[in-house]
Amino acid sequence: MKEAILLLLAGAVLGWLVIDVVQTRRAAEGMLVKETRSLSILNQRRVRVALPTSLQKSFSLSTPSLEALMAIQQAHAEVLESWLRQLVRNPSHDSAWARLLFSRLVELDWKRALDLAASVPELERYRHEAIRAWAEDDLAAAVEEWFRVDPSGDTLSQLLRDLDGEKALKLYDLLRDRGFDASEPRRFSWLIGKLYEAGPEQAVRKALDHALGKEDGEDGLEYVMERWVEDDPEAALAWVERLGKAADKKLALSRLAEAWAEEDPKACLEKMWGQLDVEQRTRLTDQLGRAMGKTVKAQQILTLIDEYVESEVVRSRFLYEAVTGLQNSDRPQALADLVTYLNAEDGMMRSAIESAARRWAEIDGEGMSEWLDTVEDPHVRKAAVRALVGDLAQRDPRRALEIYAAEAAASGNQSLDSWGARQFLESLAATGEDPQAVIAELPEAARAPFLESYVRQFADQAPGEAVAFLQVQPVSRERERALQEAIGRWAGMDPEQAAVWINDLPAGDQRAYASRNLVRNWARHDPEAAQDWYATLPAGAPREAAAWGLAEALKRRDPAASLALLRDLPHDEAHERLMNESIQVLADRDVDQARAWLDEVTLPEASRDKVQQRIDQAAAMQAFFDREDR
Predict the structure, then answer these.
(1) 464 exposure class (CB count in 10 Å sphere: 0-12, 13-18, 19+)
(2) Residue 69: which of 120, 136, 125, 9 has the closest Cα?
């Protein structure tokens, strides 16, 4: 950007100088004439000269002075080369000045500029300017040089920038002869767009020759059709209809329809729909769906779809593309036009609705909120509420919470997941609000998503308090998961206190789950204490649950102890899996002990066979390593 500004400024100032330099800069006339005369003499002698003082000072400025620009304009090519060599010796030189000097050198002598860029590494980046000037004199030679310095053709677009239609055709042939259309089809497609200047019919034929037989994608034909549609779409259609080869005609019709639909969907469908096959119609309908978010013609497009599209599958695809396209558009409020057409029971569609509504909320939250008041479909409403409160969660969490609570109280529609709830709690906690108080304010039907997020964010600060808070919340699957996680955290921080609380619980599932969770976490850092507490438990569900938790925790640390606990537990798939894991660890450490354990216990035949197989595998491995050691 900086270099472009300098070049534009240089051109403007130099033009102004030619017109009015004497009148506008009369005070500097003497100095300019003197410096210009000196430069002229130096140019005539074709000698290398040091940078004039005025230029040296200007090179430290971001904006060129009038004197500096005049000096550059008057300098001979050999003098410019001398100045460039001196300039780049300074590691901190301004590249914009180097670009300005080099561009002027290209105007005077592109061959000298090309040689200079090849010999001075700091100027290599400007070599394409000299090659582009070369292309005006000898395109074929310039192309050869271009690919010598840039075999990949990455900078080919630089060469295309100023080509007229005739030179574009010649370049097309030169590049095809090199196989560039096959090796770099995407870059080659840029050139095809330039061919339009040589005539649209010829450009289309060249584009078809390049595109056919390749996978769908950017082939250059779309660029030609875009320009032809701007000039005369009906002439383009008439010409395409006369194409003889079916494959040519199909591809050209597809690209023409895609370009025309962007410009005028009504005229495109009226003129072309009957000539398109099912595949082409589907692609065009998808494109119109994506265009919904880019145009003010939303209602017009919907009317056209109603008129032309009969397939429900194609209509569904159109609507999904339409809603998806709103996510990155400047007109997401077009969602309001689409709602009555949507099947919001579909999960993917609900996700698209939520994303579009969130975009709408970002642009116009009040407008989106007013529209939400009119929405009756519960699926659409849930997605829209999620979007609105999600957008507000960071900027105005209290307002977002009010909207969410009101919606949940009115419909029982939670509309949030734990991730969305976490945003609320984080934002509100940052303002000093108590997360427990925030959750307690919510209707009971709205609390579930917040409970697990609360535990993960705040339970470590006071796990016992978190457990007590969760106990009084409405029973739900989320509450049970949150409670067990809180107990696990408490067990890791203060297991003795957690054990006292569990011992005071009434008999039941909650006490059993808590016992299992406590002992499993406790045994990870203090297995002896965990085993001692387990030994105090009376027979019953809590003791059995704790045995499971302790066996899980000990299977790698002390597999024999884990197996001893498993011996008296009910046999099921979980029991068999844990037992096999424990016996494998034990067999790897002591095959004889594993065999002795198997002899002492009573197991179902299938389980015994699996355990025996584990032991035999471990024994074979041990025998192999013993032989290797000998």
Answers:
(1) middle
(2) 9
Contact 153, 184 (CB under 8 A): yes
Q: DSSP secondary structure string, 313-356?
A: HHHHHHHHHHHHHGGGSS-GGGHHHHGGG--TTSHHHHHHHHHH
DSSP annotation of 167 reads H
Joined together, the tokens standing for residue 29 give 């006339």
Q: Which residue has the tokens 């919340």?
A: 473
What lies within 8 Å, CB to CB, of 270 at 6+ separation is none
**Total-model pTM:** 0.52
Mark 469-502 as b/e (b = at least 16 C-beta within 10 Å). bbeebeeeebbeebbbbbbbbbbbeebeebbebb
- Block means of pLDDT (10 residues each) for the chain, length 630 residues? 47 41 36 38 41 55 65 84 83 76 88 88 86 84 81 69 78 80 68 81 84 59 90 94 90 92 89 91 87 70 86 86 85 85 85 89 88 86 83 79 76 56 71 82 78 81 85 84 84 85 79 84 86 88 87 87 83 80 83 84 76 83 68
pLDDT score for 576 = 78
- Name residue 426's amino acid: E
With residue 297 as reference, give the H or E element that holds it: none
CA 36 – CA 42 distance, rounded (Å): 10
Residue whose structure tokens are 């509504």: 357
Query: What is the amino acid identity at position 326?
Result: L
DSSP 25-58: TGGGHHHHHHHHHHHHHHHHHT---PPPHHHHHH
Compute the distance between CA of residue 136 and CA of residue 125 in angstroms, rounded to an integer.
Answer: 20
Which residues make Cβ contacts (< 8 Å) with residue 389, sequence separation at least 6?
A: 400, 401, 403, 404, 415, 416, 420, 424
> Rounded to a whole number, what is the distance in angstroms from the first to the last CA of the chain?
75
Assign 3-state DSSP to the chain and report helix, strand, coil percentages, each to 5. 80, 0, 20
The structure tokens 């498993």 sit at: 566
For residue 444, the tally of other CB atoms under 10 A from its CB is 13
Q: What 8-state DSSP symbol labels residue 264? A: -
Cα separation, 296 vs 293, whole angstroms: 8
The 3-state secondary structure of 159-217, one letter per residue: HHCCCCHHHHHHHHHHHHHCCHHHHCHHHHHHHHHHHHHHCHHHHHHHHHHHHCCCCCC
How many alpha carbons fall within 13 Å on the CB side of residue 309?
Answer: 25
